[in-house]
Here is the input.
Amino acid sequence: MTQSIGADAPGGPSRGSFLDEVKDAVTPRATLLVVGVVVLHLLFIASYVGALHDPRPKDVPFGVVAPQAVARQTVARLEKLPGDPLDPRAVADAATAREQILDRKIDGALVVGPAGGDTLLVATGGGKVLAATLVTLTTALEKSQTRTLRTVDVVPADKEDANGLSSFYLTVGWCVGGYLCASIMVISSGAGRSTPRRAVIRLLAMAVVGIVGGLGGALIVGPVLDALPGSVAASRPTGGSAR
Here is the structure.
């Protein structure tokens, strides 16, 4: 009598359940890595789309240059704008306003003229969206007061970075790389208990990642693409600290 070779016959191929095949095809460590990456990219989507799909200014530092009485009235009017888009404060003169814009103490300033003509100081180099928002807000306010407005770009965006986005995407790239490297380093170690020695080794590894990533990013946006002005030495520490 012959014995057929089947799934349960000695020496025959073993057949497990579909769940067993899934576990064999996708290891627990791979599952953790995939779940970690999925969670990270969903968090990035939620944070960036949530912040940028409908940007609205909130308490933007804004200077007002005018005689004392007029400055108080203008500041009070700006403080009453719906949604509190501006954080206005009186500034001594136009030169001080320019200096504060360069130092990023304020993001724009309104210089009130004596004959109904005012000047708005902005800095597209600090962000074209923010500058355009200040122009829109101030223009609407000036029209309601039947005054004219002239816009002066104190710090224009670099000609190679017309939209002022290179620094933003450079920083995003640094942050994403740091998050992914740190997460993968932790997840790939499994559920094993961490020790002080392992923690020091991981910190040293992340320091190397920060140095290499910071230098690489600075080289790409600087000498390679010429997208941002300034030296590589000035940009590289920023990339390392972003991690």
